[in-house]
Design goal:
Strand order of the largest sheet: 3-2-1-4-6-5-7
Helix content: 25-40%
Radius of gyration: 17 Å
Shape: globular
Number of helices: 8
Structural class: alpha/beta
Length: about 230
């Protein structure tokens, strides 16, 4: 892969035991091959996440702290707004996404042209069976209504152009509908298999019940938005 510039946007919430290892892994993957920025949005953590991030010596890391807990979508959108480079990579801060997959996603993004969004699809998911079941159910319902062709919209690993995301009106929950929203503005979603790792420290911050009913509303909201754009 030729040298490219990109910003890696990572929202975090109480990931004091995971985020530093993840940052080191990212630097080991890219080393001096690329000019890149890591932009971390701390969503009002109550542990030592922000303190540990503030003590880092890497020149290419920018840390933004939300004053109140705003959620994953807001944190990602804010990170993209503040990103230095046009090419954006998003990933989770819990260590379950493997940084070794990032060059693969970038290669797909820059192949032919970059008017696309590359979406990771987690294979051999390392989550409990209940979480996997709920995820598959939600993906099937969403895909039936929105026809985005995505079997795993919950995978945080995505690559896209900054301007396309910022052209979409923000709403809470946006990050779970990026393939459908990009398809609605004629940006091609491309799906790439990626690995998935077990969570070593901490717990998932987002469960079924705290997003199920809102997710149903959001599906219909995205459907209406895309239908309006096609008129």
């Amino acid at each position: 892969m030729n040298k490219k510039n990109f910003s890696i946007v990572i929202p975090v919430l109480n990931e004091e035991n995971n985020i530093l290892k993840l940052i080191n892994e990212i630097h080991n993957v890219f080393n001096d091959q690329n000019e890149f920025q890591i932009l971390i949005i701390d969503d009002c953590s109550i542990d030592d996440t922000f303190k540990k991030l503030s003590n880092l010596n890497y020149h290419n890391i920018k840390v933004i702290k939300n004053e109140i807990n705003m959620g994953q979508s807001y944190s990602i959108y804010r990170g993209v707004e503040n990103a230095k480079y046009n090419t954006i990579i998003t990933m989770d801060g819990d260590g379950q996404n493997n940084p070794k997959d990032l060059p693969l996603l970038l290669n797909h993004y820059y192949k032919d042209n970059n008017k696309k969004i590359i979406c990771g699809i987690r294979k051999n998911r390392q989550d409990n069976m209940f979480k996997i079941f709920c995820s598959k159910l939600a993906n099937n319902i969403r895909n039936i209504i929105l026809n985005d062709g995505c079997s795993d919209t919950g995978c945080a690993l995505k690559v896209f152009d900054k301007k396309y995301l910022l052209s979409i009106d923000y709403f809470d929950g946006l990050h779970r509908f990026l393939p459908a929203l990009f398809k609605g503005i004629d940006i091609l979603p491309v799906y790439v298999d990626v690995s998935h790792r077990p969570r070593i420290y901490g717990n998932s911050k987002y469960g079924l019940m705290n997003r199920m009913f809102k997710g149903i509303y959001d599906i219909h909201y995205v459907y209406r938005v895309n239908k309006k754009k096609k008129k």
